[in-house]
Design brief:
The complex is a heterotrimer of chains A (493), B (138) and C (117). With 493 residues, chain A is mostly helical. Chain A is globular, with a radius of gyration of 21 Å. A two-stranded antiparallel ribbon of chain A has the order 1-2. Chain A is 77% helix and 2% strand. The longest helix of chain B has 32 residues, at 103-134. The chains are: A mainly alpha (493), B mainly alpha (138), C mainly alpha (117).
């Protein structure tokens, strides 16, 4: 099995491990298999990233059939970057879930949990690596269906309604993407993304193409929770099991952002996207509205996970703002924020999970006085919150800085006000939590809860420390993102 | 429904025919309409008919839920396993040419095995879904 | 007239809008899933009717036939049908669990039960 088989192995290994997990009855064995497979997927993703940075795009054709007849996987720098992020987050969350899953999921269901988790991982990795438009739809549905199952697995019955609402909206989104792929096939006769990129410039005036683009943007917008299509996200993140919230918040919407920018820049080309279609104006307005409304609604939430969900809507607004600027620096800012937000939100959700396991709830009032009783977990939440605000020396600052630089290049001053307002509102809702943690005393009559188990703290601090690392040394985040952005821009003029 | 003699007798006559038809659809997928998914669903329909007439307990005696779980996993493993075998034999994933001496025979064998895997998984999943829904008492 | 020659697209649009309306306007959770199925069925018809080559036979290899309809949309739709079946099964499983947990399958009653928390 040589290096050329890596793109296939990246997706196939979790796919094979999922039914094996189904056969295993024991939750511990299923966890062991999952962590092994996820670590292998991470190693493969890092190897692919290095391979692509040295040699250029890696192409893998399934079944030996060459494109455009066969399905091919095209891994370039943007792909490999997102693959590494998804595999990395998955491994850290699995490290957490060895102990974490036992708090929320019955031991008879744990092997089923890991089956669904591995299928979700397969879907996300496949969506990222593929170079075929219909294959993208198939893996999108694999990841979506398994995430509906994961969200419904929690003990709270509101998780069921949240999963149902997500199912309805997500299936409509995926069907819109299917319509768009069908219309594209109708006009060009091919499903391969690189081939589509070659054939589409000749058809730029066709109405079918515009309709396909519109369906595609709305469909992907539903999956990435673009304002106003974000209604499923706060409930889904709030009532899912804590481990699932961390995994989905850090990966699922990021992969959808990647798919959007792959289609916008890599298939349709930036000249069609921004000159022929008014996407620049639309995305800019929606991104700004997402930042402002998401942050504002987050300030009024009593459930911490719901607050973090609305915060995610706002952060996705930042990514969309970067996309709408139609420049290399804007695209770089979006790609860097994909990495940084995954680290931030993953760390914050896992820290909240630690607190919830000890305190029994995720309401703001439950967290009173946690600072004294769980010092490490609270410190992790504070650092994650600072990163979300964008304090210097954290990863969040780097993303905001790149976005501000990109906005200054275009000279649209109102966007700077939006970004600043978003940061101020973030200070507001993070401060509410910090005040409750550190400046209120606990009201419970029972003995004080102890600090979380070390195997729960280690993954949290791994992600939080990565926040600080990527805030100081940006070689692996900004430079790789810039190369990826230049590559995506270079496909079309 | 098991007290009704017409239903009982007709079911006992038609179930073998349905099963046979599903096998026909399974193996004629490459030269006519058919294939794994369709055959799996027809196969499951036979079991569901049996459950509707004779009760879910009777079906659980024929196929227990643990057998169904085993079949679900092994169908998917057969599909993915064929791909891994082709990779080990030197081709890309699911490159059926490597499976036999003659590439044409390799393609036949590959499609046969893959569709068999799909059919097994789909039949097991459909029966599982039906039993899961029907087994709940309101 | 040219508009009625392309009647398959009119069928697609009619089914799509009907399905979408049922999803949005219906209060019962099971009816929403049925609307979703209608919506997906319209997309299937879009693909399959797109694949027809005029004068082409069904895409099954035979000696006497020169022109075949395009088999690729058929394959794509088989995959999409399976996805639709899986989504329906999952949605109905969620509705069964919701009915057991809340006692009702009507969206507004569930909403009012959650609001009162």
């Amino acid at each position: 099995m040589t290096l050329t088989q890596l793109p296939a192995l990246q997706v196939i290994l979790p796919l094979i491990a999922a039914p094996v997990c189904l056969l295993l009855r024991s939750g511990r064995l299923a966890w062991l298999l999952s962590i092994l497979v996820s670590t292998t997927a991470l190693i493969i993703a890092v190897l692919l990233l290095r391979l692509v940075l040295e040699n250029g795009t890696v192409i893998y054709s399934y079944g030996g059939w060459a494109a455009p007849w066969g399905i091919e996987y095209r891994v370039d720098i943007a792909n490999a970057f997102v693959l590494a992020i998804v595999a990395g987050i998955s491994t850290v969350v699995l490290l957490f879930s060895r102990v974490g899953v036992s708090y929320e999921i019955k031991s008879s269901d744990q092997s089923l949990f890991y089956t669904a988790y591995l299928l979700c991982l397969t879907g996300l990795l496949g969506m990222t690596a593929t170079g075929d438009a219909f294959n993208l739809f198939v893996f999108l549905e694999i990841s979506s269906l398994s995430s509906y199952v994961l969200i419904a697995m929690g003990p709270d019955r509101r998780g069921l309604t949240a999963a149902y609402q997500y199912l309805i909206m997500g299936t409509i989104g995926a069907t819109f993407i299917l319509i768009a792929v069908g219309l594209l096939y109708m006009v060009t006769g091919t499903l391969n993304m690189a081939d589509l990129a070659n054939r589409l410039p000749a058809l730029a005036q066709s109405r079918t193409l515009r309709v396909a683009f519109a369906f595609l943007t709305v469909g992907i917008g539903l999956k990435l929770a673009l304002f106003p299509l974000h209604l499923w996200l706060p409930n889904a993140y709030a009532y899912a099991p804590h481990v699932v919230s961390a995994f989905l918040a850090a990966t699922a919407t990021k992969v959808a952002v990647y798919v959007l920018l792959r289609f916008m820049y890599g298939v349709f080309g930036s000249s069609f996207t921004f000159d022929s279609m008014p996407l620049q104006f639309i995305l800019m307005v929606l991104g700004a509205l997402a930042v402002l409304s998401g942050s504002t609604i987050a300030v009024f939430q009593h459930n911490i996970k719901r607050m973090l969900g609305y915060s995610s809507v706002a952060q996705i607004g930042y990514m969309i703002l970067g996309l709408s600027l139609a420049s290399v620096s804007g695209l770089t800012a979006t790609l860097v924020h994909i990495l940084n937000h995954a680290l931030m939100k993953g760390g914050l959700f896992l820290a909240v999970a630690c607190m919830a396991y000890q305190l029994g709830g995720v309401r703001l009032a439950d967290l009173a006085g946690t600072g004294q009783r769980m010092p490490w977990t609270s410190a992790a939440f504070v650092v994650g919150g600072l990163s979300l605000i964008g304090v210097p020396l954290t990863a969040g600052f780097i993303s905001k800085w790149m976005l501000v630089v990109a906005v200054l290049e275009t000279g649209w001053w109102p966007l700077l006000i939006v970004i600043a307002a978003g940061s101020l509102l973030t200070v507001a809702y993070i401060w509410r939590v910090i005040e409750m943690i550190y400046f209120r005393s606990a009201a419970t009559a029972d003995g004080p809860p102890q600090e979380a188990h070390w195997s729960l703290l280690a993954p949290v601090w791994l992600l939080i420390a990565a926040n600080i690392y990527f805030g100081i040394d940006t070689q692996w985040s900004v430079d790789v993102a810039r190369l990826a952005a230049q590559l995506l821009f270079g496909v079309h003029a | 429904m098991r007290d009704n003699p017409v239903l009982r007798v007709v079911t006992k006559i038609t179930i073998p025919i349905i099963l046979l038809f599903s096998l026909y659809v399974q193996f004629h997928g490459d030269y006519g309409p058919g294939g794994g998914f369709q055959a799996g669903v027809i196969f499951a329909a036979a079991f569901i008919l049996y459950a509707l007439v004779f009760g879910t307990q009777a079906v659980r005696i024929v196929v227990s839920p643990s057998i169904l779980r085993l079949l679900t996993a092994s169908g998917l493993l057969l599909f993915a396993g064929v791909g891994m075998v082709t990779m080990l034999l030197g081709g890309h994933y699911l490159d059926y040419d490597t499976l036999a001496q003659n590439p044409l025979h390799g393609q036949h064998l590959g499609i046969f095995l893959v569709e068999l895997g799909v059919g097994i998984t789909v039949a097991a999943v459909m029966i599982t879904v039906f039993l899961a829904f029907a087994g709940r008492r309101d | 007239m040219d508009m009625f020659a392309l009647y398959n697209y009119w069928v697609v649009i009619f089914l799509m809008m009907t399905g979408f309306y049922v999803v949005i306007a219906s209060g019962n959770l099971v009816k929403k899933i049925i609307g979703l199925n209608l919506f997906q069925a319209s997309v299937f018809i879009l693909y399959i009717s797109m694949g027809k080559v005029s004068g082409g036979a069904a895409p099954i290899l035979r000696e006497t036939v020169q022109t075949y309809s395009n088999p690729l949309p058929h394959v794509l739709i088989l995959t999409a049908i399976v996805v639709g079946v899986a989504t329906t099964a999952l949605g109905l499983a969620l509705v069964v669990r919701i009915k057991e947990a809340y006692g009702t399958a009507e969206e507004d009653e569930i909403h009012s039960q959650d609001e009162s928390l």
